[in-house]
Amino acid sequence: MELDINNFKTFQNPKAYTFEEVACYQCQSRSFSNLLIGQDDLTGRKGNFRYVTCKDCGLSYQNPRLDLDSVKEFYDNDYIAHRKKTDWGILTPLYEWAMNKHDREKQKIVSRYLKFNESTEILDVGCAVGTFLAHMKKKHNCSASGIDFVDLSAHPNFSNINFYNGVFSETQLPRAKFDLITMWHFLEHDYKPAESLAKSYEALKPDGRLVIEVPRLDSFSYELFKERWPGVQAPQHTILFNKNTFMKFIESHNFEIVDYLPYGAFPSYFYLFMGAKFKKLQGRGVDLNKVIVPYFAGQLLLSPILLFEKYLNLSMQTIVCRKKSS
Predict the structure, then answer these.
(1) Could you state, in order of their start, the residue ranges of all structural domains in the chain?
(2) Sorting pLDDT into bands at 50, 70 and 90, what band is 309?
(3) I need a surface site. Which of 12, 98, 183, 213 has the fewest CB within 10 A?
(4) If you classify domain 80-323 with CATH, what class do you get?
């Protein structure tokens, strides 16, 4: 049966899910138009989730959304950022190179705006298993802290990294402590994005930097895949930012933009590969054991195009910002 996007009550969802209606995260308006119906393509879990666009400010977001208790199950060990497998047989060196490259790309971005040493304080919000923090600590011997909604403190990376478990906006943090706060694909998940930016403002040093990377709704890959775009990632993604709404959201919460980058550290190729899988092959759920070979083969095939990723608006965007001047 085709779903009526205008009537969420007709959506077929597990009875255990509890939904809550929300106002626009930017302007608090409750006037919206329907955008799309998203599903959890990455794991293949059941559920249909509606995304809307605010008629007043243009922000796109999930409405209604799952409440926090219901959404927790979507962040278990099947969630791609929490998967811990590292042994891929003969492909293990290639896999490790790809994973390390992601953290190296993050380092390249932040190093353009700050110099790092043993006195530098870094906080990574939505840190998952802490690979970026471990990389920065190894490279610069800086003081590293991470926070995540899921308790991942048992991971070996956190043996010498401070870990906070909980909702970022509700976490007690020292004021003006951090030189750098990063949100690598966190803000689009956040249930309290305005409060998270306020918390970042409090925890950031006066001359510190906040770096935020999110998927870009007005991108080539979204136009290609629409509701099967991996950037939808329902129901984990609560907000879908285009360039304009992303910049407006940051600037309206006491930050000024130092730089806007039409790319990110996260590889846009991932969205191209997975979007093609979900859209063209109609295959929901990702078995990494089966896709790892075609994934790297496709990456090699598209490598001439991916060399120009920073100029093609494929799927990612990053904002580097600081506290507004008085």
Answers:
(1) 8-74, 80-323
(2) very high
(3) 12
(4) alpha beta
